[in-house]
Amino acid sequence: MILNDEQKKVVYSNEPFLFLLAGAGSGKTRVVVERIKYLISQGVMPDKILAITFTRKASFEMKERIDNKEVHVHTFHQFCYLKLIDYYKESFKLANEEIEPFSREELLEISKHKNNLYLSKRPKKFIEYQNYLKKNGLKDFDDLILGVYFKIKGKNHAFSYQYIFIDEFQDTNHLQYSLLKELIKKDTKVLAVGDPDQSIYRFRGADSKIIFLYVKDYHAKLYTLSTNYRSRRTILEHANRLIVRNNRKYKKELTPTNVENTHVYNLHFSTEKEEAILITNLIKLFKSHQIKDEEIAILYRNHSRAFELIQHLHYSHISYQTYDDSNEEEKIGVQLLTIHKAKGLEFDAVIIIGLEHGILPSIKNHSYMELEEERRLMFVAMTRARHFLYFSSVKKNGDNHTFTSSQFISESGTKTIPGRSINDIISLGDFNGRKAKNSRIDSNH
């Protein structure tokens, strides 16, 4: 495996505590995998290595790439579930993420209260919810981490790891960081990997400031990965132009290895119906130029914003897959995802819809801190794209509500063009040099 100079410094570092500031598409998983393999080659026992990932999909991918079954690779929840079941011999059932009669907002507030180690104001429905869990022999996902944390807090516990790796550290909450500190023993060495520019789970209790706490608490050595292996140069230029508007403690600028140019435009429509027609034809254009269905992604802030487009894709007999009916290990058809669900993924072509004020950024987010989170969300969406990136905005929705375009369009230096016909997009020249196959595209829309 060929590593660049930035990556080599991390893989072969002798520092006990490291923080890797890893930009989008910079090969952070490669660095973690290669460091684990290097440590094993130097005599470290595989079962003394613990790697924590953010999602099950990331855990599965890392296990495959490490190719050593003795290395412990889990999400925080998987790790704690296994400890409670196998080590502490507890018996319980996992609660569903949605539990009647509790609303989604109530469950979110309860979860944040638990993730703050009960130090925040207790939600109104907290006692009722806990009684419901106890009555039905249930634990929720937060209880898994709380259960292990309180069992080992301040004790000389049996869980001993020589090396700990934590991925997506910018989305860690205070409970998870507290558990990590209890797992760190005298001779434990840690590599935390994250990017504050991609911190998008503040609404669930994540706090990117934990990065600063970790660096301060353990005098961690800072390394940076800024070389991007994913996106074309112009895509990164627009993404960099957007994110510099945030107040950032750790600053970096993504540098592309792919220096090809591509146009990044915002397509502006009068209505969502007009938008759905042209985006459907744009998808057909992608497909006619050898881009597979599953390498085309439609990203949005809220599910409701994609309703008109989903209907039109259905009527046009274009295969598509929303997150609700997707399999984490298999992608089939054009991918329709919220930006949050697209985190960690990448596609040849990305279309971000809903670039209207009140949608993205959300109308709920008025404070400067909340606006910065929305800007990070947009940055994450943009950096999912390898070759093609388009924005889309409308003047009116189906309820005849009038919108102004999102400020993120101008902040990223993106030009708006009227979404009139597919020929207008073809005339931009982005598809020159790409071999097209026969495909029926309605050029009248």
- Would you identify the regions where 5 or more consecutive residues have pLDDT less than 50? 438-445
Question: What Rg do the Cα atoms give?
Answer: 23 Å
The CATH level-2 architecture of the largest domain is identified as 3-Layer(aba) Sandwich
- Percentage beta strand: 15-25%
Helix content: 25-40%
Total count of domains: 2
| Estimated structural class | alpha/beta
CATH class of the largest domain: Alpha Beta
What is the chains' assembly state? single chain
CATH topology of the largest domain: Rossmann fold
What key attributes describe this structure?
445 residues, alpha/beta, Rossmann fold, 7-stranded parallel sheet, 6-stranded parallel sheet, 37% helix, globular
What does this structure look like?
By secondary structure, the chain is of the alpha/beta class. The protein has 2 domains: 1-225, 3-Layer(aba) Sandwich (Rossmann fold); 233-428, Rossmann fold (3-Layer(aba) Sandwich). Helices cover 37% and strands 20% of the residues. It has helices spanning 5-11, 28-41, 56-66, 76-87, 104-115, 126-135, 141-152, 174-183, 209-218, 233-243, 272-288, 307-315, 339-342, 368-382, 407-411, 422-426; strands at residues 17-22, 49-53, 72-75, 93-94, 138-139, 163-166, 189-194, 221-225, 227-232, 255-258, 264-271, 296-300, 320-322, 334-338, 347-353, 385-396, 415-418. A 7-stranded parallel sheet has the order 13-14-12-15-16-11-17. Strand 15 (347-353), helix 14 and strand 16 form a beta-alpha-beta unit. Helix 1 (5-11) packs across helix 2 (28-41), helix 4 packs across helix 7 (141-152) and helix 7 runs parallel beside helix 8 (174-183). The protein is globular, with a radius of gyration of 23 Å. It starts with a helix and ends in a 19-residue tail after the last helix.
